[in-house]
């Protein structure tokens, strides 16, 4: 007994020493490659091919290739076996019976047995436990140090030693397992940009079909670096000794590793290959997409802050370093020629929005956005995305008392939402900290004894019929944030004070919250929408969209009018989103909405018309009108039209303005709508 205890202590000390050795981390990473989901799935697929190998051999007599996998996917029985081997199957949260029965209601035996096999290889490591009497050192300790293989490091299994369970090195670890492929990989870059990777295998000691799992990692930069590389990721599974990859990016240093797998397991991945980088130069970043106005806020001084949003590129050759934003506008001057002012600012490349501050109401602005990256000392620029918008206001609107903090601005609406001046004013609803909120303002009373304001709010009705009782809060400020609001609801908020136990007169107002779909469509961040499926669809859309053209001293002006139909009783129109653009001949042939410069404007709900001046003669334009309601955005109506033929006296860039009731007396001739199409 003494010698057994001594051997256990010595083994434990040796085990600790080995763990502290520098190479142990690398060894652990290498051995961990045995236990990846891609290896388990490959073992599962190899089992399916093994079960149907007789049928497969009849089709593929000469050699095993990827055709065997394709055959299995298309074969009635083999495909049932192959189904659980797919990456989409999650066995941690689901039972095999629950996954197989819905797919194969009548005969799901093949699916069920394959699923159970996959579940077993995920929990039981390769090899067999040694005989209990052969345990020595720490493995022979009479302790329950493990319950399952997953609790043991590297390739060790949880095995019995006669008086307990310990982690032990298994026997027959590689029995029936194919040899590793040779570590030398051959890279062939195709003219199309695809990369073909080839390898060769050693003699296969197994009769079972062998599948190959390919992993890769990469790093940006001028030089290869394993320290800065990404984690290993599985990119392919194949039955051939080659693979073609289409998603190879310039400017990246790639390393690959291959594992040979059969139903019994694997010997792990090969050592990382030599680095490969595409011979192609990295492309300039793509033109920023979906540039749009998503929020307008009015400050106490009457100046505006406009938030612009755009969509970040999914995977550029080089990460965006920064964005350059230019905006310009025309101002009146003493001379006959108006002066044009221009400003610029930069924003981080990982950011998809920017705030333009100090803008003036009743003005038109042109914005250009450009992405910039660096490749060594070379600066790569995208082409510029352009947008024109107007800050026109309706006459009965008034400016907000104050604006929310910058981090509270949320891209949920492009309208200039302002309430009539009064005791209470409501800001623009914003989404923050996982909830919809709004800020309510009021004027402080002159009485110095009044320093506490009692606020109550509750929904009067919601489009999704959800109800909620009143909520209350007390504040000493002249504003309050109302958190946890419901989407698509009409709220009533009431404020009063208490002085000498006497309650002041209630001041109240109402406001509408946007739909969850509207908020989610205006931001790149994911926003959960509870009960979204139950929300009524926005059916309101522009109809009878008509146009007429007038020519005055060679200048062409278009007037556009529409009506709105099918508005739900619980939905209220908050505005119209109008976008129009000149179409090139190429875009017109392909029915594409692309253009050199698109212009956009949000009109108030009582303005169902628009006037566009300085149009080009004999030119096709595309006009899109969309209704914005309290329940979200309705379907867009799209029309394509051609301007009449005439030569304008002076060429100007087209300008947007709202339609007023008066008409120019200098109109020479009128042209009606020429061509139209509607987008449902």
Automatic annotation (TrEMBL):
Ranges for the WAP domain?
122-171
A Gene Ontology biological process term: neuron differentiation
Superkingdom of the source species? Eukaryota
**Which segments constitute the Fibronectin type-III domain?**
177-281, 287-394, 541-649
Report the leader peptide range: 1-27
Q: Which SUPFAM superfamilies did the record assign?
A: Elafin-like (SSF57256), Fibronectin type III (SSF49265)
Question: Where is there biased composition of kind Basic residues?
Answer: 653-665
**What are the GO MF terms of this UniProt record?**
peptidase inhibitor activity
Entry's SMART domains?
FN3, WAP
Name the segments for region: Disordered. 391-419, 653-680
For this UniProt record, the keywords arranged alphabetically read as follows:
Signal
Keyword presence, Signal: yes
Q: Name one GO cellular component term.
A: cell surface
Q: What is this protein called?
A: Anosmin 1
The species this protein belongs to is Neogobius melanostomus (round goby)
Taxonomic lineage per UniProt? Eukaryota, Metazoa, Chordata, Craniata, Vertebrata
């Amino acid at each position: 007994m003494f010698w057994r205890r001594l051997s256990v202590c010595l083994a434990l000390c040796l085990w600790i020493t080995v763990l502290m050795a520098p190479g142990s981390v690398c060894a652990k990473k290498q051995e961990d490659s045995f236990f990846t989901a891609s290896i388990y799935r490959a073992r599962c697929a190899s089992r399916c091919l093994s079960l149907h190998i007789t049928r497969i051999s009849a089709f593929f007599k000469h050699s095993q290739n990827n055709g065997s996998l394709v055959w299995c996917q298309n074969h009635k029985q083999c495909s049932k076996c192959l189904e659980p081997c797919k990456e989409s199957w999650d066995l941690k949260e689901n039972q095999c019976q629950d996954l197989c029965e819905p797919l194969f209601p009548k005969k799901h035996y093949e699916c069920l047995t394959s699923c159970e096999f996959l579940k077993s290889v995920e929990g039981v490591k390769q090899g067999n436990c040694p005989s209990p009497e052969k345990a020595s050192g720490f493995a022979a300790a009479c302790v329950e140090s493990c319950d399952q293989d997953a609790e043991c490091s590297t390739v060790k299994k949880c095995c019995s030693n006669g008086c307990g369970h310990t982690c032990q090195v298994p026997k027959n670890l590689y029995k029936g397992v194919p040899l590793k492929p040779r570590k030398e990989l051959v890279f062939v870059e195709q003219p199309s940009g695809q990369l073909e990777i080839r390898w060769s295998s050693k003699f296969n000691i197994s009769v079972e079909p062998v599948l190959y799992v390919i992993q890769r990692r990469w790093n940006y930069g001028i030089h290869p670096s394993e320290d800065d590389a990404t984690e290993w990721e599985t990119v392919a599974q194949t039955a051939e000794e080659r693979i073609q990859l289409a998603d190879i990016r310039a400017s990246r240093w790639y390393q690959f590793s291959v594992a040979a797998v059969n139903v019994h397991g694997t010997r792990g991945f090969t050592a990382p290959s030599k680095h490969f980088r595409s011979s192609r130069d990295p492309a300039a970043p793509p033109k920023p997409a979906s540039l749009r106005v998503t929020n307008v806020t009015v400050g106490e001084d009457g100046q505006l802050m406009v938030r612009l949003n755009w969509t970040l590129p999914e995977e550029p050759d080089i990460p965006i370093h920064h964005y350059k934003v230019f905006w310009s506008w025309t101002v009146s001057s003493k001379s006959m020629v108006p002066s044009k002012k221009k400003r610029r600012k930069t924003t981080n490349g990982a950011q998809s929005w920017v705030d333009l501050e100090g803008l003036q109401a009743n003005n038109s602005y042109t914005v250009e956005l450009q992405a910039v990256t660096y490749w060594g000392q070379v600066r790569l620029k995208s082409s510029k995305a352009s947008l024109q918008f107007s800050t026109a206001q309706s006459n009965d609107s008034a400016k907000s008392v104050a604006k929310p903090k910058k981090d509270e601005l949320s891209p949920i609406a492009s309208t200039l939402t302002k309430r009539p001046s009064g005791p209470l004013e409501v800001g623009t609803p914003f989404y923050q900290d996982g909830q919809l909120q709004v800020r309510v303002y009021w004027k402080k009373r002159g009485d110095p004894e009044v320093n506490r304001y009692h606020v109550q709010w509750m929904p009067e009705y919601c489009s999704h019929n959800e109800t909620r009782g009143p909520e209350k809060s007390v504040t000493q400020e002249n504003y309050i944030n109302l958190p946890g609001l419901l989407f698509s609801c009409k709220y009533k908020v009431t404020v009063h004070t208490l002085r000498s136990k006497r309650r002041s007169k209630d001041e109240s107002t109402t406001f509408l919250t946007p739909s969850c779909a509207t908020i989610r469509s205006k931001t790149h961040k994911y926003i959960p929408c509870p009960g979204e499926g139950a929300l009524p669809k926005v059916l309101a859309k522009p109809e009878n969209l008509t146009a007429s053209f007038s020519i005055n001293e060679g200048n062409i002006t278009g007037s556009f009018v529409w009506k709105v139909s099918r508005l739900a009783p619980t939905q209220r129109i908050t505005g119209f989103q109008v976008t129009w653009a000149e179409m090139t001949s190429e875009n017109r042939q392909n029915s594409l909405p692309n253009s050199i410069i698109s212009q956009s404007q949000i009109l108030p709900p009582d303005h169902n018309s628009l006037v566009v001046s300085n149009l080009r003669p004999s030119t096709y334009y595309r006009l899109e009108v969309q209704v914005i309601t309290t329940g979200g955005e309705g379907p867009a109506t799209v029309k394509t039209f051609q301007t009449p033929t005439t030569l304008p006296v002076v060429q100007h860039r087209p300008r947007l303005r709202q339609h007023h009731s008066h008409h120019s007396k200098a109109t020479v001739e009128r042209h009606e709508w020429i061509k139209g199409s509607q987008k449902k």
